[in-house]
Amino acid sequence: MNQAHAADAGRFELRIIGERINPGFRSTRTLFDDEDFPGIRALAVRQVQSGASCLNVNVGARAQTDARFVAQVIRAIQQEVDVPLCFDFPHPEVQRVCLQTYDAGRAGGRLPIVNSITEHRWALMDLYRLHPFQVVVMASERMVDGVARANKTAADIASTARRAARRLRDEHGMPMHDILIDVSVSAIAADSEGLGRATLDAVATIGSDPELAGIHLMGGLSNIGQQLPARAADGSDLKLCLENAFLTLAVPLGFDTVLGTPWRGYAPLPADHHVMKTYRQFLECSGTDALRAVRRLYRG
Prior knowledge:
single chain, about 300 residues, alpha/beta, TIM Barrel, eight-stranded parallel β-barrel, two-stranded antiparallel ribbon, 9 helices, 10 strands, disordered N terminus
């Protein structure tokens, strides 16, 4: 990674897409199971009041069998908040229901977001002619001879993002500012191949490409601290600090949107913070050296 890209707290501007309307969170799953629409509305309000400028909506597998419930959830949310919604479903038929239900007037005329497409899952773009939207593109995989392959290098991530952005622009007339590239933030506990370093280098490449000016770079951060203890060696919240360490390096390079919990407390870390220093060391390592660097986060 180019160490010339230092953290710049003055440029730490971040858009948060609230992630909590998702059955992956136990409390939200209970709201869905009970069809507790007042509770769902309250959760939407809490996220917006905590800083979310958009809300992700995912009702899980039920979306494929219960279109009525999907529409009810969307309407309930839009009764209380005026931010745009991001629909997190891979199936075109579910996205069609979401887009038909969405009321742009209740969101100040702003477009919804379809989350997400990939090079091998492009059928969702057939909906664009009927219901314009912004779109999340997963740059973590590409098509090779008709088969989806995981991207493990910065070059592959950046070239996938560039191909998708050009296709969206040239085939669908989508402006760059309506495209969000999800670069995927991987768990460091299992990263012996330099995936974290590749992601940051890809952010730098995409963010500095004049052809992609205006495009948004995003990702979910919850994976980064998976399978690690709750506390770092200095007693700080290890997972939050790792999320912030990534953001401290990525935001100045062009990363501007996070799918996350609005009250999480995203902020840049000082250069001398234990987790920041160790995370930088981790990024320069691979193989067993990377795993040893991870252990230093919580063993001191």
